[in-house]
């Protein structure tokens, strides 16, 4: 992200209709990532809890949007206070912002920046949900989202991207969210997992994905939306950096998919669909912090390395015995760490920032900065998420009951099921059922 | 009369059906089935986690025939269903006491 300052940058900076339009489209692209993520995750769970998985992402669109407008934007991007948090009363309720007031030195309105950043805030907690598939109370999850974005995401976004944020000032490079989004969400997933525990039957019962086509659809939507995520993060394309980010996003994702598939073929003997989708997402995650700092060749390296490492990392849960159901840690935490650290090796110094990586004659300096960013965000998110989850667990219980978990959360929490397997006639074939509408009528009379 | 039951690989269905028709079988009953034989099922891999799937998809064909035709029909089905690979299936025959054509009430071999 380019630096943002709160005063109107009157000197020669004017609203660019092109950049404004571009950024509104990018915001919409980032929005589609959350439903995309919902399908990516939804396809990977069993039939009995697919709706709950979808809802765990969708609810973030509701809760975080409202909190962002009320105070989130102010906390993340308001005037800095001590490097750790921001505030600006005009941002509360987005009520004191002029229609054409520009964001810092950029050429886009504050409103556009606010809505673009909102979409990041929405998807980040949704990412965590993949680790908790099949077993948490929907109300507890909704409460967790509200508390987590307030105490973890808004401050961390300020550290990384806010003018005066301490990681921003330290010149840690995070173009579009390697630390603020992916490491943050991955570490939070681990924190909550330590409280919530394993699914019943973990390592014993088969927990195969119920629909790989849904997974592919979700991964495709994520890939598509990610162009807004990354290419939009320069807030315009006056200097071509947004275009570099776009190219690097595509290149790294392709390389990561191939890397994961190659590893998988060597290790397990098949090129799987889930591997292709997972590899692509791992590449998207890894290139997110780096897409403004590396060359397309560097992006190939970042992607390929991330694809292989994330492919290897997903097996860790079986080794260590923690049930990260859909591999949020293996893909988002590991991918985010890999991408953030590789900036320290592959940054060319000629694109987003003058900082050069080790391979471009920059020594270890940038690598050290990146490591500080990685470790601090990881630890903060891990510890606070653990404490939050523990508190929720003590107050209302984070997990559903054993019977609900075994039967599937969809019916218990949402009074719905995803698919009708009764066949033609809705289950009345071969026997006379009540006439359509009869059941509803009875209910009304009662 | 005999009831011949064949459990075969789904992709051999057309060959078996054609062979039965060529022989002059008038009707058959077909069921989508699943099961396993000596080869057991197969292994699926999801992000490195291996799942053994015991039950694999099969097709079950049932044909009622006269005693005299049973032996030859079994050979025909076996020939048409065979791929030479593991999991080709099984064919067996059991005696049938009686049969009735629902429409006309004809019984025994006349009902076939």
TrEMBL record, chain A:
What sections of the protein cross the membrane?
A: 20-41, 53-77, 108-128, 140-161, 181-200, 212-229, 241-263, 270-290, 296-316, 328-351, 371-389
The keyword Cell membrane is assigned to this record: yes
PROSITE patterns named in the record: AMMONIUM_TRANSP
Does the keyword Lipoprotein feature in the UniProt annotation?
no
Under InterPro entries, the record lists: Ammonium/urea_transptr (IPR029020), Ammonium_transpt (IPR001905), Ammonium_transpt_CS (IPR018047), NH4_transpt_AmtB-like_dom (IPR024041)
Which Pfam families does the UniProt entry name for this protein?
A: Ammonium_transp
Q: Which UniProt keywords apply?
A: Ammonia transport, Cell membrane, Membrane, Transmembrane, Transmembrane helix, Transport
An example molecular function term from Gene Ontology annotations: ammonium channel activity
The Ammonium transporter AmtB-like domain, residue ranges? 22-419
Topology in the lipid bilayer is annotated as: Multi-pass membrane protein
Compartment(s) = Cell membrane
One GO CC annotation: plasma membrane
Source organism, top-level taxon: Bacteria
PANTHER family, sorted: AMMONIUM TRANSPORTER MEP2 (PTHR43029:SF10)
What job does this protein perform? Involved in the uptake of ammonium/ammonia (NH(4)(+)/NH(3)).
Describe, as the record does, how this protein assembles with itself and its partners.
Homotrimer.
Annotated family: Belongs to the ammonia transporter channel (TC 1.A.11.2) family.
The name under which this protein is listed is Ammonium transporter
Q: Which organism is it from?
A: Streptomyces angustmyceticus
Q: What is the lineage of its organism?
A: Bacteria, Bacillati, Actinomycetota, Actinomycetes, Kitasatosporales
Automatic annotation (TrEMBL), chain B:
Task: List, in alphabetical order, the GO biological process terms annotated in this UniProt record.
Answer: regulation of nitrogen utilization
Could you name the domain of life of the organism this protein comes from? Bacteria
Q: Which GO terms describe its cellular component?
A: cytosol
Q: Name one GO molecular function term.
A: ATP binding
Per UniProt, the keywords (alphabetical) are:
Nucleotide-binding, Phosphoprotein, Transcription, Transcription regulation
Question: O-UMP-tyrosine modification sites?
Answer: 51
What's one Pfam family here? Answer: P-II
Assembly and interactions?
A: Homotrimer.
> Which protein are we looking at?
Nitrogen regulatory protein P-II
Which gene is annotated as encoding this protein in its UniProt record? glnB
